[in-house]
Hints:
With 78 residues, the protein is mostly helical. 85% of the residues lie in helices and 0% in strands. The mean pLDDT is 83.
Amino acid sequence: xxxxxxxxxxxxxxxxxxxxxxxxxxxGIHAVLTETxxxxxxxxxxxxxxxxxxxxxxxNRIEINDLTVVVQHLLMVR
Length: 78
């Protein structure tokens, strides 16, 4: 019974790993942006765009590699 439970968990994680990673990155970006000294309007616009990217990923319009590139560019701009 325990092995069946563990197998189900491993299958679930393997099946949804990209979506879990994308959700974690999106929440992390939101957390970082709320702490930056940017004006509130600019924060809202950036968060709106990252949410659009996340939704596009969930709808399979973009791939995880595309999200990775965007996050790298966001982290490089300071």
